[in-house]
Amino acid sequence: MITGQEKMEEQxxxxxxxxxxxxxxxxxLEQQEEGTNIRIFVVNPGTPNAECGVSxxxxxxxxxxxxxxxxxxxxxxxxxxxxxxxxxAEIDYVTDPMGSQLTLKAPNAKMRKVADDAPFIERLxxxxxxQINPQLASHGGKVTLIEVTEDKYAILQFGGGCxxxxxxxxxxxxxxxxxLLAQFPEELVGVKDITEHQHGEHSYY
Length: 205
Hints:
Number of strands: 13
Organism: Mannheimia varigena USDA-ARS-USMARC-1296
Low-confidence stretches: 196-205
CATH topology of the largest domain: Hypothetical Protein Aq_1857, Chain: A
Radius of gyration: 21 Å
CATH class of the largest domain: Mainly Beta
Helix content: 10-25%
Order of helices and strands: EEEEHEEEEEEHEEHE
Pfam families: Fe-S_biosyn, NifU
Subunit structure: Homodimer.
Number of helices: 3
Domain Core: 14-112
CATH superfamily of the largest domain: HesB-like domain
Protein name: Fe/S biogenesis protein NfuA
Strand order of the largest sheet: 1-7-8-5-6
Shape: elongated
Largest sheet: 5 strands, mixed
């Protein structure tokens, strides 16, 4: 059993639970079998269909390969497969006019976080998958990184609702390119789209 914030391949895994959420878990656990904690997990980690969840973790459900994160009056256990995909995960308990609910944000659930010294194309793809594509998802679209040219252009392919979109050039230049150049000012000079933008029935105009 590994205790605390786990260090994998020289990278510390951080999982945060707000004070309000911790108090909520304590109230729930008081109604469970003594020694019960919580388990945080990812189903289909590292894929577009990744989903995160929290469940009860009774004493007999703890595995030797689990990592334990200690909080106020309880622990959170994470299996070794889910662990790298839960780095920077945040759990909160929010109240709004519709009621109260737990929220779990795991920015790396669909793609494992890459190291700061990883090859540039890996760091670029990570930003596209975790920052750019979530923005395009509301339109049913996504961007795939094809390559980075020798003259420092990122070649992107649009898919989904963005394929055939008459606004794709505006989206590309004003949105994605600006965002990527701000993060990689030395590695990139621009982005280019290779998709043949044919009007389709799922396109947005």
